[in-house]
Design a protein that fits this description.
Elements: E1 10-16, H1 20-31, E2 38-44, H2 51-57, E3 63-66, H3 72-82, E4 87-90, E5 96-97, H4 101-111, E6 117-126, E7 129-131, H5 145-148, E8 159-162, H6 163-169, H7 180-189, E9 195-206, H8 220-230, H9 237-259, H10 269-289
Parallel strand pairs: 1-2, 1-4, 2-3, 6-9
Antiparallel strand pairs: 4-8, 5-9, 6-7, 6-8
Helix pairs in contact: 7-8, 8-9, 9-10
Length: 291
């Protein structure tokens, strides 16, 4: 809770943009936590609706900032930089927590002190109805770098992260309009194990018109860019091999989709051929070193 004389153990960061109908539910779900050693920071990313009225309503219980509209990554990073907690918990403004979310996460971390990042299970609501996530969205525990390559399997609203992890690997990439969370989890999972408590302690909602995933075609375009940047980082041989294979797979899917659309330029073919050659060379190198 808000207390200017106390350094909280957990900083909760909620970025929001034009979600006056959903924001209050998210705020309430944090304020109703059974664990109370937290500060709640809400970043209004240049909203033009009545978000400011909601923030004024809770001004004695939260810390809020208004910024120029710069996107969710910039808003999250702004909040992280303004926070004071040892642990950072993220919550998207269209999602909400069950009351024991923070309490159970902190207990888990106290019992598993080797972990600096952990997530919980989640329920999904799409267009007002509970739905079951597909198998490809299954969550994993421990060293999950390989499982993080195909798509995002860590949810911002489900995760809690030690501040030192951000100091080590950096914040969200503000140049990515989407898949910024995929990019962050890849950078984290190559160096840190990610804990999992399977109990459903958050609700993720979807189906609304303002979701970023609805605004961009070919989401794998952005994942490929993230994977390419990762190749410039230090990777173990097995990690590098998996990254290259994933780039080839995603480019094959993108290229096939582009070929089905008459009249559009073949923008993925040349890069696909380039990475196929790289994959062959990498496999040859690995074969030689194993002799």
């Amino acid at each position: 809770m808000l207390n200017n004389s106390h350094k909280p153990n957990v900083s909760v960061i909620i970025p929001t943009y034009n979600r006056e109908q959903l924001l209050e539910r998210a705020i309430k779900s944090v304020l109703e936590q059974t664990y109370k050693d937290f500060e709640l920071i809400v970043i209004d990313d240049g909203s033009t609706d009545n978000t400011s009225r909601i923030l004024r309503k809770y001004k004695k219980k939260i810390i809020s900032y208004s910024t120029l509209h710069s996107g969710v990554s910039a808003a999250r990073n702004f909040g992280i930089n303004k926070s004071h907690g040892e642990w950072i918990a993220l919550l998207d403004s269209d999602d909400y927590w069950y009351p024991q979310k923070l309490e159970k996460q902190i207990q888990w971390l106290e019992n598993n002190s080797d972990y600096k990042i952990q997530q919980v299970g989640e329920k999904w609501i799409r267009n007002g109805k509970f739905v079951n996530p597909m198998n490809k969205h299954q969550k994993y525990h421990g060293w999950i770098f390989a499982q993080c390559l195909p798509l995002c399997i860590v949810s911002p609203s489900a995760v809690i992260i030690h501040r030192s992890v951000f100091d080590d690997i950096g914040l969200f990439n503000e140049n990515m309009p989407v898949c910024e969370d995929y990019d962050l989890w890849l950078r984290i999972s190559r160096k840190y194990p990610i804990g999992l408590m399977e109990e459903f302690l958050i609700v993720k909602t979807g189906g609304h018109d303002d979701q970023l995933s609805r605004k961009f075609w070919g989401m794998d375009r952005f994942r490929v860019e993230s994977l390419e940047r990762l190749l410039n980082e230090y990777l173990a041989d097995w990690q590098r091999e998996l990254v290259i294979k994933e780039i080839v797979h995603k480019l094959e899917v993108l290229n096939l989709g582009r070929e089905k659309r008459d009249g559009l330029p073949n923008i993925f073919g040349p890069k696909l051929n380039e990475y196929r050659k790289i994959m062959i060379n990498e496999n040859y190198k690995l074969a030689q070193t194993s002799l």
